[in-house]
Write a structure and sequence with these properties.
The chain has about 120 residues and is an alpha+beta fold. It is built from four helices and four strands. It has a four-stranded antiparallel sheet.
Length: about 120
């Protein structure tokens, strides 16, 4: 049986997240969304979205079409990760070939896009 290999990255709430000045967290969220949209448009990020974790620990899931090292590097360049808002867990994921299909879509680049 053939397998396809992906990488799952989980955005985790940083218990030591910095305290943000007024407007900083909103600007950081916009930069985070813009970064994810760039990765998707470049073909590295196949799927992404927030997680509804009742404990508040897990914040988002990113599915990359590359190896764990590259996914970790892409996630580390996320402005929200670099600023300390999120920590990242990276997990290789293998599934039987043809088990999932991804269609490129338009991702929001800011919270203003999300609210439309």
């Amino acid at each position: 049986m053939e397998f396809e290999h992906y990488t799952v990255a989980l955005l985790v709430t940083n218990p030591d997240e910095p305290v943000w000045a007024e407007g900083e967290r909103e600007a950081l969220q916009d930069a985070h969304l813009d970064h994810l949209a760039d990765l998707h448009e470049a073909g590295h990020l196949l799927a992404v979205g927030p997680l509804a974790d009742s404990d508040g620990e897990l914040r988002g899931l990113l599915l990359f079409g590359c190896g764990a090292d590259d996914a970790r590097a892409f996630a580390a360049r996320d402005p929200a990760v670099a600023a300390g808002a999120f920590l990242v867990r990276v997990l290789p994921w293998s599934i039987p070939a043809g088990g999932v299909h991804f269609t490129p879509t338009r991702l929001p680049r800011s919270m203003a896009d999300v609210r439309r």
